[in-house]
Amino acid sequence: MNKQQQNKSTPSGSIMLSGGYEVESKAIGTISIQESALSTIVKRTASEIEGISRLAGSSLIDSLAELVGSRKIQDRAITVTYTEQSSVSIRIAIVVFFGVKIPEIVETIRTRVSDAIEKMTGLKVSSVIVDIRDMEMPAPATEDDSDNSQNQR
Q: Do 113 and 13 meet the contact criterion of CB atoms below 8 Å apart?
């Protein structure tokens, strides 16, 4: 039976991925999850993790690329691969702050990204591959930051 026949014969509905796979669903009908939606989940989840500066890429080149209609940085820094039915593999390229414990950051990314995708989409995450492309110095604290921290004590 080919994929089209399988799609037509799914009585309980399914979630259709752009890679051509389905996730069983109790709903009647089909839900389509695009790679860009998964990339957004990964980007937002990673941006909340302390120690990550940004997604990898050159800010000048990325800004120019977006102006001329090229893919967004998130599309170049995050790769989603459909590994098997109801399963995805994620690859994310990031820049971290100098001095962080890289193994801890990587484990945090893997856990949080996997949990977020599984919770929001029902997809299983087979792997999260993290590429550390560079390290940056954290921005120096401003006087406002130090005043606020003293006022909170």
A: no
Give the residue ranges of DSSP H helices in the chain.
3-8, 35-47, 59-67, 73-77, 102-121, 143-151
Over residues 45-85, the pLDDT tens digits come to 999 999 999 888 656 666 566 566 555 555 678 989 888 77
To the nearest 10 degrees (0 to 180), the angle between helices 102-121 and 35-47 is: 140
Neighbours of 8 (CB within 10 A): 9
Question: For residue 8, how far is the Cα from the chain centroid?
Answer: 31
Enumerate domains of the chain plus CATH numbers: 1-33 (no CATH), 35-138 (3.30.70.1350)
